[in-house]
Amino acid sequence: MTTAATAPSVPLSPGEERDPSRFRCTQCGDCCRLHRVPVTAADIVRLMEARLELEATFVEWLAPDEIDMTGEPESFVVLREGRRLPVLAFRHGACRFLDEGRRCTVYAARPASCRTFPLELESATDTPPRRLTVLQDAACPGEFDAAPDADGFCARLDARQRELEEHVLLVMDWNRRQRRRGFAGKRPETVEAFLRFAISRSPRSAVHGGEQGRGPMEPAATECGRLATGSTHRNAGNGPAER
Ligand code: SF4
Ligand code: SF4
C-alpha cells in the first residue's frame, strides 16, 4: 500500500487538467449553501452526541417531492408522516452548522458526505484500479495544488461508502418493520423510534468513527493500492472535503 505522504500522482489522461488527488478546499462555504446534505442515521447520532442536541434542531425530514433522489428510492425512511429523507437543516440560506465566518462548527463530527466533497471513487467493475474523480456539477472553486494524497481521499471515500451501505441496510430493515406493522393494522412509528432503532443497530465504528486526523478509517491495501487519478465528472455531492 502506498502512503499519503509519498504517493506520486498518476499521470493524467490526455485532456485532463486537474489531479483530484491534489484537491485543496478554499473554504468558500459554497457547498454548505448550494446543496442539501442527506445524512445517515450514523451521521445524526454522531452529531447529536457532538452537539448534545436533539436531531429536531438540525435535521429536516424531506418528502419525496421536496428532493430529487432519482435512482435511490431506498433512501427514504417510512415514518408516521410518510416517506422522508433526513437532510441537514438550513438556516439563513445555508447549513445551520455554517457560521458567519464560513466555518463548519461541527467539523470533527460532520456528515460523511461533507468529508469527501467534491471527490468520489468510480470503477466500472468495483475492482481496482478505481479512479479518483471530481463530481460532475460540483460547482466547487477548490484548487488542485496541494501535495498528492490519493490514499487519504480514498480512505475517506471508502469510509463514506461503508457508512452509506450500512445506512441503506438499516433503512430497509426499518421499512420492512413498518410494513409488518401495517399488516397488523398499526400506524408507522415516529422519528424518535427510528433513532432509537438506529442507535441500537449502529456499530460503534460508524457512530463514533469521526475523523481522527485526515482519514476516518484506514483503507484496505487492495482497495487503494492501485488507485488511479483522473478528473472525470459525475453527479454532485455535498460538503467540503477538507477545511
Ligand atoms: S461541512 Fe457539512 S456540516 Fe459543516 S457546515 Fe458544511 S454542510 Fe454543514
Ligand atoms: S469543498 Fe469546494 S465548495 Fe466546499 S468549501 Fe471547499 S472549496 Fe468551497
Describe this structure in words.
The protein is an alpha+beta fold and 243 residues long. It has one domain. It contains 7 helices and 8 strands. It has helices at residues 30-34, 41-51, 112-116, 150-183, 191-201, 204-207, 221-224, and strands spanning 59-62, 77-79, 82-88, 90-91, 94-95, 119-122, 131-134, 228-233. A 3-stranded antiparallel sheet has the order 1-3-2. The two termini are 26 Å apart.
Report how far the terminal alpha carbons are from each other. 26 Å
- Quote the average pLDDT: 79
Helix content: 25-40%
Unreliable stretches (pLDDT < 50, length at least 5) are 1-11, 205-239
* Main beta sheet strand tally, sense and closure: 3 strands, antiparallel
User: Largest sheet, order of strands side by side?
Assistant: 1-3-2
The count of strands amounts to 8
Task: Assess the beta-strand content as a share of residues.
Answer: 5-15%
Radius of gyration: 18 Å
Core attributes:
alpha+beta, 3-stranded antiparallel sheet, binds iron/sulfur cluster, 7 helices, single chain, 243 residues
Fold topology:
Elements: H1 30-34, H2 41-51, E1 59-62, E2 77-79, E3 82-88, E4 90-91, E5 94-95, H3 112-116, E6 119-122, E7 131-134, H4 150-183, H5 191-201, H6 204-207, H7 221-224, E8 228-233
Parallel strand pairs: 7-8
Antiparallel strand pairs: 1-3, 2-3, 4-5, 6-7
Bound molecules: iron/sulfur cluster (SF4) (2 copies).
One iron/sulfur cluster (SF4) binds at residues 32, 37, 88, 95, 97-98, 104, 106, 110-111, 114, 239-240.
